[in-house]
Amino acid sequence: VLVFEALSGRLSGVFDGLAKRGALSEADVMEAMREVRLAMLDADVALPVVKDFVNKVRERAVGQEVLDSISPGQAVAKIVNDALIDALGGAGAVPLNLSAVPPVPVLMVGLQGSGKTTTSGKLALRLRERDRKKVLLASLDTQRPAAQLQLAQLATQAGVVSLPIVAGQTPVEIARRAMETGRREGYDVVILDTAGRLSIDEALMDEVRQIRDVVNPAETLLVVDAMTGQDAVNTAKSFNEAVGVSGVVMTRMDGDARGGAALSMKAITGAPIKLTGSGEKLDALEEFHPERVAGRILG
Ligand code: GDP
């Protein structure tokens, strides 16, 4: 994953240095942790997350057990690895929870341009192909004239059905109709793509809350753009407080962002990253495995 390249390079440098020394003193560990701290800040990890991370690692790493171990450099790297996994959300991917009675509603929320509509199409393709689900896609975006058509095109590409467009309906009315259609026609999952806004505003949150109360989603997935760095984390915090978010999808992991948002997300928002997007194509959607990502960061 491109977004972690710079951080990965910096951390590898630190731990290669430690490994070469053989014996380690407390001062060596402290010096290494100063470098880790700078590398994380440069990678755009939120300051409170960096502080907490460095404190935890330092506490564990300066113990005699570690310093006296056969390869202390490796022991410290292992501690950092475990702390990275924690920051990324804990071991193991957090799966989508689609165990409700069908049709299972999945609500897609996020700011305009975050990749919400594309991700809705990606998710539809994934559920159809890998999980053999019968998926209905519905656009509740009555703000942007082309939005409903865009989703209909993505549905065709993903090989799933999209809810027919009825002019003049409100988002809540479309949501009701989508769920009725889902029940009547035996769909397993109904993906509801809500309207975005350029920034967080009360009207947006109100609309999402109303839709949420009508469909009672099994998953409310917030789509954020990794390229926006700490703004993505702040957006997630606001959405989670206002409407409740069950999982985050971080898009543009193929871009040249610095990756810090992924490391800050869980601690700042409480919501786990469940999926990531790494391209414009419909198959560019991956599960988020913290232990694999940590492994890649540490090279
Ligand atoms: P929405 O306004 O949130 O619905 O955003 P769209 O789904 O329309 O996406 C905006 C642009 O971002 C489109 O050109 C997408 O192809 C592109 N996009 C979405 N996800 C990704 C991704 O993971 N990587 C890249 N490189 N582009 C993406």
UniProtKB/TrEMBL annotation:
Residues that bind GTP: 110-117, 193-197, 251-254
UniProt record, GO biological process: SRP-dependent cotranslational protein targeting to membrane
Membrane topology: Peripheral membrane protein
Primary location class: membrane
A GO MF term: GTPase activity
Annotated keywords: Cytoplasm, GTP-binding, Hydrolase, Nucleotide-binding, Ribonucleoprotein, RNA-binding, Signal recognition particle
GO cellular component: plasma membrane; signal recognition particle
Enzyme Commission number(s): 3.6.5.4
Keyword DNA-binding: no
Residue span(s) of domain SRP54-type proteins GTP-binding: 272-285
EC top class named in words: hydrolase
Reactions this protein catalyses: GTP + H2O = GDP + phosphate + H(+)
Record's subcellular location: Cell inner membrane; Cytoplasm
Superkingdom assignment: Bacteria
Subunit structure: Part of the signal recognition particle protein translocation system, which is composed of SRP and FtsY. SRP is a ribonucleoprotein composed of Ffh and a 4.5S RNA molecule.
Family recorded in the similarity comment: Belongs to the GTP-binding SRP family. SRP54 subfamily.
Protein task: Involved in targeting and insertion of nascent membrane proteins into the cytoplasmic membrane. Binds to the hydrophobic signal sequence of the ribosome-nascent chain (RNC) as it emerges from the ribosomes. The SRP-RNC complex is then targeted to the cytoplasmic membrane where it interacts with the SRP receptor FtsY. Interaction with FtsY leads to the transfer of the RNC complex to the Sec translocase for insertion into the membrane, the hydrolysis of GTP by both Ffh and FtsY, and the dissociation of the SRP-FtsY complex into the individual components.
Annotated domain remarks: Composed of three domains: the N-terminal N domain, which is responsible for interactions with the ribosome, the central G domain, which binds GTP, and the C-terminal M domain, which binds the RNA and the signal sequence of the RNC.
Listed name of the protein: Signal recognition particle protein
Organism: Acetobacter peroxydans
Lineage: Bacteria, Pseudomonadati, Pseudomonadota, Alphaproteobacteria, Acetobacterales
Gene giving rise to this polypeptide: ffh
